[in-house]
Amino acid sequence: MANTVSIDALRPEIWQKELFKDVMDNLYFTQNGMMGKDENNIVFVKDDLTKQKGDTITLPLTTKLTGNGVSGDNELEGNEEAISAYSEAVVIDQKRFGVRLTGMLDEQKNAYDMRKDAKNKLSIRLQEFIERQMFLKLAGVTNTTLTDIAGDVVAADCAWSNTPDYIPDADTNAGYGNRYLCADYSAGATSLAATDLITPSLISRVKIKAKVAKPKVLPLKINGKNYYVLFIHPYQAFDLKNNATFAQARREAEARGKENPIFTGALGIWDGVVIHEHEYVPWLDVSVAGNSFRGAASGTNFAVDTCRALLCGRQAAVFAKAKNPNGWVEKSFDYKNKTGFATGLIGGIQKVMFNSKEYGVVALDTAITSLV
């Protein structure tokens, strides 16, 4: 009787598929129903380059019709309206991560499966990288010295694959723009005070800005209703939870759409805006990272530490995926005493722009309560 055994050459391929599936399935945007090939998603996935060669994916965008048409028996011929077309080009790049085990003796000493642990750790690291890139791109961060609350630099790769379009200085100086709102919308970010915290009123204001903007930020269609999604930093979430108006609204809120993951992972809903808390929402420490999200010595000089909340609608960002034959690599060193593992991504992430304006996102800058 013959025994069936696995073929060694196939094992890396199996691990590659498992790892990338783990990465994609565990992304916050995937788990909360915000990412996919359908246009009714915040992150629009394009996988054209998984089937063909190339280094750029082009996303076509067109304007809606605004003409008056003709009435009665007036001639339509010669009075047709032209559709204005624009496009967003997303360039792909490569990112790789790897680990190397100490050696056979060390593996023998450890009770846990070091190979499986390496796969899990690499999966988590790649997931974190993709997720961080999405928030950096959506927020228009080009300041490579931006840190997180712990003081670790998180924006060194903000220009990976594609450099995001930053919020115009004129907007941050004024406190408002076509796709921007500052908590101090009368004097701008240079006058932002420590008391200019996120409020339900600001959420309604930024929603209105998205609805009346030209072109309009298209909301997500969920169970036949329109919703926007607002991503806020945990510090902003603290301020919102301690806002009396919002707290009362949460207590009185009716259960809605619980079967949809966009709602199940939410902090709450205010005025048609589903609020999600995420630690990757950019935070600006003016004492460490310089004066702005744009650069350490460029752009608007923000007066206080600031979090940039992101109100998103459809196709706010695009994730372009390409075929990657080296998604999981195992390599032996030192006469097979040491083993190394590597994984990586070939793809690109970018905020979608429409005629030099953000297609699906509006930024909201607020001060935050200083927590220890």
Can you tell me about this structure?
The structure is a single chain. Residues 1-11 have low confidence and may be disordered. This protein has helices spanning 11-26, 28-31, 104-109, 114-139, 169-174, 200-212, 234-241, 244-252, 261-264; strands at residues 35-36, 43-49, 56-62, 85-91, 93-100, 176-177, 180-182, 220-222, 225-232, 268-270, 273-277, 283-284, 306-312, 317-322, 328-333, 338-351, 353-354, 357-358, 361-367. The termini are far apart. The protein has one domain (11-61, 87-372): phage-related protein like fold, CATH 3.90.1690. Helices cover 25% and strands 27% of the residues. By secondary structure, it is α+β, with helices and mostly antiparallel strands. Strands 6, 7, 8, 9, 10, 11, 12, 13 and 19 form a nine-stranded mixed β-sheet that branches. The protein is built from nine helices and 19 strands.
| Shape category | globular
Termini Cα gap: 67 Å
Helix content: 10-25%
Overall tally of domains: 1
Q: Could you say what the CATH topology is called?
A: phage-related protein like fold
Largest sheet: 9 strands, mixed
Taking all Cα atoms into account, the compactness measure Rg is 24 Å
Structural class label: alpha+beta
Question: What's the mean pLDDT score?
Answer: 88
